[in-house]
Amino acid sequence: MTEATSEKPMRQRMEEYINDLQDQIVTAFEKLDPNSPPFKRDSWVRAQGGTGRSCVFAVRPDDEARSTDPHQSILEKAGVNISIVHGTLPPAAIRQMRADHTSMPLPDRPEGLPFFVAGLSLVIHPRNPHAPTVHANYRYFEITEPESTTDDDTASSPEVIAWWFGGGSDLTPSYLYEEDAVHFHSTLKKACDVHGPQLYPTFKKWCDEYFFIPHRQESRGIGGLFFDDLNEGTHKRLSPASEVKRPVTQDEIFAFIQDLGNAFIPSYLPILTIRHSLPSTPHQRRWQLIRRGRYVEFNLVHDRGTKFGLMTPGARIESILMSLPETARWEYMSEMGTEEGTEEARLVEVLKEPRTWAV
């Protein structure tokens, strides 16, 4: 368990936490590969309200071509981004949000609704085909009434209409190592179980459902956790706290978020440390790029976070599309993944029938 009750507003507490978590994660990757360039740290200001910092790793092809250093970076492309933004959601974004958050009906406002969100989002695409891609996202959201002023023009605190936490973490390998899947899921389960026995199985199932690609009839990866709409009210996927233990108050849910965020490094870094140096072939690289094509398809066609981000006024497009890999491949009627007995087909089998990795 982490932080107990604090007098600070949740907005400030979440902002401080994700700033610290971003530093920890980026530093961990840089220590793993000290001979590669550091992450580029890009602090920015949103004209419509808010700030953020994008920490991005990428090596441009022309830089690689000119380099005489035989060292190849462990990561091919990666981003660990935080944003703390506020503003007004336009009607189109409200409609999208209402569809995504049916347990929290939001009023129709032609002028829009004020919002605040603080979150961390990361995607890591390693170079080696044996090393899996990983994604994680943790966020706090508020919707408020428009700010009002008193007769003496002193601003009063806006009324919060709704607040919630969301997030998750998931693993997307090109080649299946069952011990990696067990380690990743078991680490997340351990963090969940402190806060209640129903969280891991419920959010693991939600993750399997969410990251499904309907037009391919397969999952994007081997899952992890996905959840949204965690607040003090009832939740359509969870039993009441009176029946089964679960976090309910802001403090309890924030402690849950912190434990999951703190579990990211131990869930993923040991896997990357082992897999990044394994020998690989052009055949395996080809399959990795095909799988990355599937990653792109999900993120651009189905991911609701991408859709919401692109609808938000003043959206920082480069940060939203940071999740896309440096290189991907599409082949017409590719035989890869369809040939029985191959390592590629073994992965596809799991993508079509999700498995239980932690008990």
Q: How does this model look, in words?
A:
There is one protein chain. The chain has 359 residues and is of the alpha+beta class. The protein has helices at 10-32, 61-66, 91-100, 178-193, 199-210, 250-262, 264-275, 282-301, 304-311, 317-320, 343-352; strands at 40-45, 50-58, 75-89, 113-126, 133-144, 160-172, 212-213, 218-219, 223-230. The strands form two sheets. The protein has a seven-stranded antiparallel β-sheet with strand order 1-2-3-4-5-6-9. Strands 7-8 form a two-stranded antiparallel sheet. Helix 1 runs parallel beside helix 6, helix 3 runs antiparallel to helix 9 and helix 4 runs antiparallel to helix 7 (264-275). The protein starts with 9 loop residues before the first helix and ends in a 7-residue tail after the last helix. Homodimer. Keywords: Oxidoreductase, Porphyrin biosynthesis.
Name a few traits of the molecule.
359 residues; alpha+beta; two-stranded antiparallel sheet; 11 helices
Short description:
The chain has 359 residues and is of the alpha+beta class. Helices cover 37% and strands 23% of the residues.
Query: How do the strands of the widest beta sheet line up side by side?
Result: 1-2-3-4-5-6-9
Largest sheet: 7 strands, antiparallel
What's the gyration radius in Å?
21 Å
User: Average pLDDT across residues?
Assistant: 90
Strand content: 15-25%
Strand elements, count: 9
Structural class: alpha+beta
Q: How many distinct helices?
A: 11
User: Quick one: overall form?
Assistant: globular
Rounded to the nearest angstrom, the distance between the terminal CA atoms is: 21 Å
